[in-house]
Specification:
three-stranded antiparallel β-sheet; elongated; two-stranded antiparallel ribbon; 460 residues
């Protein structure tokens, strides 16, 4: 087996004894490559990480460092990886070697990184699938405080609403606390303060919100920790027991991913039409519903109101840069792999700009959908948006599900939200899986005719 150059690309030229080696596949249409890059770049980080970073780092003012980091760091690196992959026409292992033998180790490093990312990222996708299945069953148990794993400090917005609606006594400030309906005045005295009004306590010098010194744990938080993760009393010394419901969902996620990439880019190129575009349909539906809820305006204003002083804080610029790396997924070999299946003369510069700008706008767009609902939840709970806003799993599996319970037909909105997360996560996985598979079949081209076996072996 020897290497030759054709059209500027590094190609594998089979010897006479391997003349039956299948040719390297390519994208069916240029749009498939764009959608694959979009599905890879636009993922869970756009929905559960960027909105939180934006509000924490100055609201609308955060868009300035975020956009500058996009232009100065994200776009150049994104374009560079697409260029390397498209020019060499091979995966990361061979691509960096083709540039210079001195860079051979970079290809192996990127594969180690993407392997680790693919393993842990699929766990998060597993959680979204579990929540999707539970939503389909119609039993949204994360809103209940009557499960065996719930503590005495369990709190649910649904239960709190019942306390206010069923109030027939003298107390008009009932809320759900210690698994019963209590007046806020009684809670003030229980925590060592004096009654003041229906929203505050008196500590002797000033009024404070009644919930300041009260321990309350959302039912959705306990459901996530105890029912989903089975965390319990697990420690580093005692890891707890295997959660078989997650094992089953994890296996199902890998099976779905396997069938999506069973023929490499030929099958993945068809799947990305759905995985890259359908989340926008669901995100738009959630946004339309969110902005029609009471309190949505407060949530949105909390999200976009600029605080210009934050631009002087170095941490804000660091968060903007970290979000760019987190969202774009550079230095993992995935983009090199996707671009390696392009036509040599494809305009990858346009592709890089288009995907980068779309990624930027999607992050902002998702923030409106998220904070409109969080504003609604904050109003129902009688607290500030700041008290319900979280990032990462805390947003996706605790705060947002709790808010969905307060909507009409919560099962429908839960299915929409978690299925959207599942599709976003799955779409981001394709490129990583493809990078590993491509590295193998580029190294041993005769395996291309049994590509599905390579994928199946990698999954196990």
């Amino acid at each position: 087996m020897s290497k030759s150059e054709s059209n500027g690309k590094v190609e594998q030229t089979p010897s006479d004894s391997s003349s039956v080696t299948p040719a390297r596949a390519s994208w069916g249409r240029p749009i498939e490559f764009i959608l694959a890059c979009l599905g890879y770049a636009v993922g869970l980080g756009n929905v559960w990480r960027f909105p939180y970073l934006a509000y924490r780092n100055g609201g609308g003012a955060f868009l300035i460092p975020f956009f500058l980091m996009l232009v100065l760091i994200g776009l150049p690196l994104f374009f560079l990886e697409l260029y390397v992959g498209q020019f060499t026409g091979v995966g990361p292992l061979q691509a960096f070697s083709a540039i210079s033998p001195f860079f051979s180790g970079l290809g192996y490093c990127t594969l180690v990184v993407i392997s680790i990312i693919s393993i842990y990222y699929m766990i998060i996708v597993t959680w979204t699938l579990f929540y999707t299945i539970v939503s389909i069953t119609g039993n949204l148990a994360w809103g209940s405080c009557e499960n065996e794993f719930n503590s005495q400090f369990c709190y649910s917005g649904e239960y709190d609403q019942r306390c206010r609606e069923n109030n027939t006594g003298a107390a008009t400030d009932l809320t759900f606390y210690l698994r019963q309906c209590m007046s806020i005045g009684d809670i003030c005295e229980l925590t060592g303060f004096q009654r003041f009004d229906g929203k505050s306590c008196w500590n002797g010098t000033e009024t404070i919100p009644w919930y300041t010194n009260v321990t309350r744990v959302l039912a959705s938080q306990e459901y996530y920790n105890e029912r989903v993760l089975g965390r319990g009393d697990a420690t580093w010394e005692s890891w707890g027991t295997i959660q078989w419901h997650l094992v089953g969902c994890l296996f199902l996620c890998w099976v779905v991913a396997f069938f999506c990439v069973i023929k490499g880019v030929q099958s993945a190129g068809k799947v990305v039409y759905f995985t890259a575009l359908f989340p926008y349909v669901m995100l738009t539906t959630l946004l339309i519903r969110g902005v029609t809820l009471e309190g949505a305006y407060d949530g949105v204003m909390f999200y976009i109101t600029p605080n210009w002083e934050t631009l002087l804080d170095g941490r804000v610029w660091g968060d903007a840069a970290s979000q760019i790396f987190y969202s774009f997924g550079v230095a993992c070999g995935s983009l090199v792999t996707l671009a390696s299946y392009n036509n040599f003369h494809n305009n990858c510069h346009f592709d890089a700009v288009f995907v980068s700008i779309t990624n930027f706008l999607t992050s902002i767009y998702a923030g409106f959908a998220i904070f409109s609902v969080l504003g609604f939840q904050a109003q129902l709970m009688g607290v500030s948006v700041d008290d319900v806003a979280e990032q990462g799993p805390g947003l996706a599996f605790v705060a947002y599900p709790e808010a969905l319970l307060q909507m009409p037909i919560p099962q429908f909105w839960s299915i929409m939200f978690f299925f959207m997360l599942f599709i976003l996560g799955l779409g981001s996985q394709f490129a990583g899986i493809e990078a590993i598979n491509t590295a193998i079949v580029d190294q041993w081209p005769h395996l291309r005719k049994n590509y599905w076996r390579v994928s199946w072996t990698n999954f196990f």
